[in-house]
Hints:
With about 180 residues, the protein is α/β, with parallel strands linked by helices. The chain has one domain: Rossmann fold (3-Layer(aba) Sandwich), CATH 3.40.50. The chain has helices spanning about 25-35, 75-80, 95-105, 130-135; strands spanning about 10-15, 40-45, 55-60, 65, 70, 85-90, 110-115, 140, 145, 150-155, 155-160, 175. It has a six-stranded parallel β-sheet with strand order 5-2-6-7-1-8, sandwiched between helices. A hairpin with a 6-residue loop joins strand 9 (about 145) and strand 10. The longest helix is centred in the first third of the chain and has 14 residues, at about 25-35. The N and C termini lie far apart (about 35 Å). The model has no long low-confidence stretch (mean pLDDT about 90).
Amino acid sequence: MNVIQAQGVGWIEVVCGCMFSGKTEELIRRIRRAEIAKQKTIIFKPQIDNRYSESEVVSHSQQKIQSINVKNAQEVLEQAKNAEVIGIDEAQFLGTEIVEVCNILANQGKRVIVAGLDKDYLGVPFEPVPQLLAIAEYITKTLAICTVCGNPASFTQRLIDSQKRVLVGAENLYEARCRKCFRP
């Protein structure tokens, strides 16, 4: 995606998809390009996501970038004051307040790049990502590879029996599945 940032104009970019589809890798890539362009960047991740690191956003393929842990969306707003480009990983863990925070930041002339799951383990829209999609200027939906048949996958299959909507995990708890192989 080629984006030219006009002075004082902000916007929201959303990178969504299922687990293992490259959302975090794409977020890291966009932040690194902003750094190369000498823009002031900052990246956040929810405190609940401590799978690979406490102080870095880490993709499943082990790409990493320094980040700030936040308990809630309000902390993003408070700590992003001096940044021109803001990255937010795992937006689905920050609640619906993240939608207003992203709007405020974009209205302040900032580029806001948000990554998150668009559907939960049941295949149901995972708030707040659908609301973010509705207000975003740029949307990228990433697909994984189905671990059963090899087709493009847009669903996250939970591998253990749990009714909790939020259950943080990786390969030990989830697989990417296509529409045909997904079993909610």
